[in-house]
Amino acid sequence: MRPPLVLSISASDPLGASGLAADLKTLTALGVYGAGVTTMIAVGSTQGVRSLHRLEGDVVGAQLDAVLADVRPDATKIGALGGAAAATEVSRRVREHRAELGTLVLDAVMVDLDGTALITAEGAAVLAAELVPQVDVLVANTLEAGQLLGRAPATDAEGLREHALALRELGPRSVLVTGARLGGADAVDVLVHPGGTDVLRSARVDSAHTRGAGATLTAAIAAQYARVEEFGRTGQDDQVGSEGTQDDDITIIASAREFLASTMIDAQTWELSRTPGTGHGPLNHLITLSAG
C-alpha cells in the first residue's frame, strides 16, 4: 500500500499553529502522509513573531535532496521561505525535479498577521521571478498579491479578480487570491483557472483563532491534489471532478476552504494563551479525527 504523500517546505513554529506544523496536522487530518523540509525557525506565539532564524541554503537543499532521493510526492506545498538562500535552493530543486513533485502549490508567504515581514526583499524577488512561473497553483492574500505585482492591495472583489488574472499571466496554471482582509459579512476569494474565473463566497467566520489559516488552506489544497493522484493510481478517477483539471481546481479549492472554516469554528472555544482574549489563537486541525 502506498498512501498519498505531500512534501511541505516551510518554516517551523514552536507553538505548532502555523507553517510546517499546521501543514503536517492538516495533511494528517485529511488522510495524507506529510513529509517536511524546514526553511527557518519562526520564534513566536499567539502574540506574534518574536524573531526569525533562517537556515543556510545548503541545509535546506540537503533536506530536499534526502527526501527526493527516497520518495516521490503526489503534491508539493511551498510555504514560508524566509530569504533568498532558501528560495534559491528550493527553486533549483523544483527545476531539477519538476516532473517528480506532483501538483505544486505555492503559498506566497510574505507577512505575518501582526505585520512582521516573513521574507527578505531578495527572497521575495527570487520567489516572484523563479518560483511563481513554475507552480501549478499560486495562493496569495491581498497583501501578497499586491507585493508580487508591485501594486496596492485589492480593496474589493473586482480588485481580487484583476490581481488574480495578472498573477496567472506570470505562469501558474491557477491562481487563488484570498480576500479575508477585505472585511464584510462574506469571505470572498477569487480563483482564476484554465476554465475561467470564479468568485468563491462563504459566510465569514468571526474568530480570534486565525493563526496558521493560510498554511492550513494551502496544505488542504495540496492534500486534495495528492488524493486525486492516488485516485488515478488506483483507477478511481471519477472520485474528484468530472471535467479534468479545471473541474478539479474548483472542487479541491472549495473543499479546502470548507475545511479551513471548520478548523476555525471548532477552535472558537479554545483558550491556550496565558493572556486570554489577546493575540491570534491556533486552529483545530484534527477535527476529522474527533468527529466520531
Automatic annotation (TrEMBL):
Keywords, A to Z, come to: Kinase, Thiamine biosynthesis, Transferase
Q: Which reaction does this chain catalyze?
A: 4-amino-2-methyl-5-(phosphooxymethyl)pyrimidine + ATP = 4-amino-2-methyl-5-(diphosphooxymethyl)pyrimidine + ADP; 4-amino-5-hydroxymethyl-2-methylpyrimidine + ATP = 4-amino-2-methyl-5-(phosphooxymethyl)pyrimidine + ADP + H(+)
GO function term, MF aspect, one: phosphomethylpyrimidine kinase activity
**Keyword Acyltransferase applies:** no
A GO cellular-component term linked to this record: cytosol
User: Which residue ranges does the record assign to the Pyridoxamine kinase/Phosphomethylpyrimidine kinase domain?
Assistant: 13-230
Q: In which pathway does it act?
A: Cofactor biosynthesis; thiamine diphosphate biosynthesis; 4-amino-2-methyl-5-diphosphomethylpyrimidine from 5-amino-1-(5-phospho-D-ribosyl)imidazole: step 3/3
InterPro entries on file? HMP/HMP-P_kinase_dom, PM/HMP-P_kinase-1, Ribokinase-like
Name a Pfam family for this protein. Answer: Phos_pyr_kin
Tell me which SUPFAM superfamilies the record gives: Ribokinase-like
Report any one BP term from Gene Ontology: thiamine biosynthetic process
Q: What does this protein do?
A: Catalyzes the phosphorylation of hydroxymethylpyrimidine phosphate (HMP-P) to HMP-PP, and of HMP to HMP-P.
Output this protein's name: Phosphomethylpyrimidine kinase
- The species is Brachybacterium phenoliresistens
